[in-house]
Amino acid sequence: MYFIFYSQCYFLFTFLLKQAKEPEQLRKLFIGGLSFETTEESLRAHFEQWGSLTDCVVMRDPNSKRSRGFGFVTYSSVTEVDEAMKARPHKVDGRVVEPKRAVSREDSNKPGAHLTVKKIFVGGIKEDTEEHHIREYFEKYGKIDCIDIMEERSTGKKRGFCFVSFDDHDTVDKIVAQKFHTINFHNCEVRKALSKQEMNAISSGRGGYGGGGPGYGNQGGGFGGSGDGGYGGNRGGKNFILSKLNVPLTLWRYCFKFELPFQDMEGVEITTTLEIMEDSSQTMGQ
C-alpha cells in the first residue's frame, strides 16, 4: 500500500519538477485568426496531433459568449510546442490560423512585444566575446542568417551590443520568451530589434493587445482580464485542480485513484509538494 502510494507520489513529483523547469508561459501558444465556429474541442483535436495539451481555450466575449477569434493552447513540454511550430501552416475548421508563442502579461506592454520580427538586439556584449561565441549560443534555437557586432568606426572597439538575424520569426519569439541568456559567461539582455518604422507605429498607438493593429485580441477584448473574459483571470481552465501547479485532473486521478475533496474549489493554492503529500495522506486516512 505505502509502496504504491509513494511511487505514485514520485511520479507526480517528477511531473511537477519538469513543469517547474519549463514554465507554463514557455509551453503556451497564442492561436490567432480562428473561425468564429471553432470550439475548444475542434481546437484541441487539431493541436493534440503534436503533443499532450494541458489546457485549451477559445476566448469569448463575456456577455455574448461569441468567439473573439483567438485562443490559447498549452502543451506539457516545450518540445511539443517546437513540433507544433515546425508543422506550420495550420488549418483549423477549414481556416488557416496563426500560431505564435504567447507573450506573458508582464511583457505584453513592452515595445514591439507582439510584432513579428526576425532580428534580435543583444546587449551586454563584452570585449572578450567574439562572433563564434554568439553563433554557438544562438544557433541552437534556429538557423542564423547573419550576426552584426557593432563597433566604433574610429577605434574598432566593440560598442557592447550586436544584432542577430534568423530565418524564422518563431526563433526570435522563443529566444525573447526565455528571458535569461548567458553568452561567453556573461549575462546578456535580449529583445526584439525594431526598425524606425515599427517604433513610430508603436509610439502612435497602433498594435498591441486589444488594439486596431497587429496583436492579440484585436477583435475585441483583452488578455488576462478579470472574470471569465480574460485568459489567466479569476477563473482558470476546467481541467486543472490546482491553478498554481497546473496539475491536470486526469494525472491526479491516475496517481491517487480517488477524488480530492477540494478538486472543484476555486482559489486553492498549494505551492509545495510537501503540502500536496500531507493533504493526500490525510484524505487517504479518512
TrEMBL record:
<dbReference type="GO" id="GO:0000398">
    <property type="term" value="P:mRNA splicing, via spliceosome"/>
</dbReference>
<protein>
    <submittedName>
        <fullName>Heteroous nuclear ribonucleoprotein A3</fullName>
    </submittedName>
</protein>
<dbReference type="InterPro" id="IPR035979">
    <property type="entry name" value="RBD_domain_sf"/>
</dbReference>
<keyword id="KW-0694">RNA-binding</keyword>
<dbReference type="GO" id="GO:0071013">
    <property type="term" value="C:catalytic step 2 spliceosome"/>
</dbReference>
<dbReference type="InterPro" id="IPR000504">
    <property type="entry name" value="RRM_dom"/>
</dbReference>
<dbReference type="InterPro" id="IPR012677">
    <property type="entry name" value="Nucleotide-bd_a/b_plait_sf"/>
</dbReference>
<dbReference type="GO" id="GO:0003730">
    <property type="term" value="F:mRNA 3'-UTR binding"/>
</dbReference>
<feature type="domain" description="RRM">
    <location>
        <begin position="27"/>
        <end position="110"/>
    </location>
</feature>
<dbReference type="Pfam" id="PF00076">
    <property type="entry name" value="RRM_1"/>
</dbReference>
<feature type="domain" description="RRM">
    <location>
        <begin position="118"/>
        <end position="197"/>
    </location>
</feature>
